[in-house]
Amino acid sequence: MNETIGLMKQHRSIRKFTKDPVTAEQLDAILTAAQQASTSSNMQAYSVIGITDKELRNELAKLAGNQAYIEESPVFLVWCADLYRWEQAARRHYDGEILSTTENFIIGTVDAALAAQNAAIAAESLGLGIVYIGGIRNQPEQISELLELPQHVYPVFGMCIGVPDQSPLDRPRLPRAAVYYENSYKTNTMDSNIDAYDEAMSNYMKARSNGKAGTTWSQAMATKAGPVRMHMRSFLQKQGFELE
User: Which has the closest alpha carbon to 156: 82, 233, 97?
Assistant: First the structure.
C-alpha cells in the first residue's frame, strides 16, 4: 500500500459540490495529468471541451438527463474520441483514402477513457471530487451540434469536478475472483461470485437508502439487458464512423 493506491481506493462518485471554485492552477494540473496518459501509437485520439458558458452548461444538463450537478459543479468537461485531428495530420503525408476503421474508433474511445481517468485521479489528489456523466450520450447528436464537433469526433462522456460537499458510502466492487483469472477465463465460479456480490450490493443499497431498497447487482444489470441508447450506431455513422 502507498499514498497513490490509498487515494485510488478512496474513490467515490461526487454529485454534490461546495461553492468553492476549481482554480486555474488546479485545472491546469488536471489536464497536464490527462495528457500524460498512455495512448495507442501516440495518436492522442481524444479532445476535451471545458464548458464555461452558463447557458450552454444548462442546455447540456437537460440533454444529459436533467442532472443538476452538471449545472452546479465548478468545472464540467466533455471528453471526446477524436479522429479528426489525426486525419488532418495524416493527410499531410498520405494521398490514399483514409479509412474509418473499427480499430481506430476503439483507439479514440480508449484514449479518451485513459486520459479522463488520469484526470480523475489527479483531481482527487488535489482534494477535489468527480463524477462521470454517461448521460452525455443520451442525445449525442444535439450535443455534438452544440459543441460544433466535426466529423470523426463524438462525445464519450462528461465529467463534473469540484470540492466535495458529501461523503458517499463506499460502493462494494465485484469479488476479485470474478474479474481476475490466471491463464484462462473461468466460468465455473461465476454463479457463486455473482451470488456473493448480489448480497454485498443489497446490503449497500439498504444502508444507502435507510432500508428502503435492497436491489441486487444482478437485478440492476437486468435493466441493461433491453434496448439502451440504440441511437448510438446511427449517430456514429452520421459522424463519419463507418467502422469498416
Answer: 82
Sign of the alpha-carbon dihedral angle for 237, 41, 131, 19:
negative
Look up residue 84 and give its amino acid. Answer: Y
Cα–Cα distance for residue pair 212/26, rounded to 1 Å: 39
Listing DSSP states for 106-131 in one string gives: HHHHHHHHHHHHHHHHHHHHTT-EEE
Full DSSP string of 133-177: EGGGGSSHHHHHHHHT--TTEEEEEEEEEE-B-----------HH
- Distances, alpha carbon 98 to alpha carbons 22, 88, 94, 238, in Å: 40, 10, 8, 17
**pLDDT (tens digit per residue) in 107-127:** 999 999 999 999 999 999 999
CA 178 to each of CA 52, 189, 197: distance values in angstroms, whole numbers, following the listed order: 41, 8, 9
Q: For 5-51, what is each residue's pLDDT tens digit?
A: 999 999 999 999 999 999 999 999 999 999 999 999 999 999 999 99
Nine-digit cell at 169? 458510502
Q: Which is it for the CA torsion 64, 69, 71, 76, positive or negative?
A: negative
Q: What are phi and psi of 100, to 5 degrees?
A: -90, 85
Residue 242 DSSP SS3: coil
Q: What span, in angstroms and rounded, lies between the C-alpha atoms of 97 and 113?
A: 28
The residue count for the chain? 244
Q: In angstroms, how far is CA 192 from the centroid of its own chain? A: 29
